[in-house]
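INTERNAL AUDIT FORM
Audit reference: QA-55
Scope: verify that the stored structure record matches its stored sequence.
Auditor: D.O.
Record contents follow.
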Amino acid sequence: MTNPAIAANGLRKAYGEKTVLDGIDLSIPAGTVFALLGPNGAGKTTAVKILSTLIPPGQGSGAISVGGHDLATDAQAVRAAIGVTGQFSAVDGLITGEENMLLMADLHHLSRAEGRRVAADLLERFDLTEAAKKPASTYSGGMKRRLDIAMTLVGSPRIIFLDEPTTGLDPRSRHSMWQMIRGLVADGVTVFLTTQYLEEADELADRIAVLHRGKIAAEGTADELKRIVPGGHVRLRFTDPAAYRAAAAALGDETARDDEALALQLPSDGTQRDLRAVLDRLDAAGIEADELTVHTPDLDDVFFALTETEAATDTAAVTAAGIPAPSKETVR
């Protein structure tokens, strides 16, 4: 087995009496996307800052390695192996996109010729060639974000930290950014992503961890996380009333009936084995459903289930203050 691109054992950080990270463990394989989710203030950005050497880990943290380099003893090598795009753009709006790129090339000690070559290649890759000579202040939000990531790639990092990279972008720009991130991973780059958009983690991440009150509340693939939340079910619809009644009898008491729609609903985790068990029971009774749909919880459901204590506290606070509680979409 190859060493993980990022590994942390018992990562801790506190500010005075406030514990932000309370002993989290991470093991992220190279060439994958890892998404860290959590409510605002959960410690996502703090984790990024520690792993990218911007701030030191807290007392009592275990071993931490990034790109195969020990964070405590070889921080300079870690910095050489990574790129970081924070929540707020590092683009200088007073100079052109090309000049921003060349500035980064200088910071990476590239020769003038090599810097121009790398800048031109990345500007083309991120569809910024036509705007390269224009002041970055004239760029749209999506263009600035693309330039931000292009600047991050000047040093050819193999690990990139993207801290909420699509916040504030319109849907089209977000989808464009997703394509770029997929392209990076296809080239073998490891991406550590924090995001407030659960759909984004679902679309991009190979593995997802939910951070809550300083600890990892759950970790797994998107499908694995969705299965830990109850509420998944199979819905069967019939056009023949006799088949509907026979199916209800065959499937037993767990089945919820909708006599008007001739539809049955029964709990299911959505796995192939579970679906086959349902179909086998229907086959044994000589019944065939006209329509079968599987409903599984989404990451919104997972997020709110795992952080419900904090959500309940927040709701109580705003209710006491006479403020309407935020909707699910608003909280996200």
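Auditor finding: record pair retrieved intact. The two ends are 37 Å apart (CA to CA).
Action required: none
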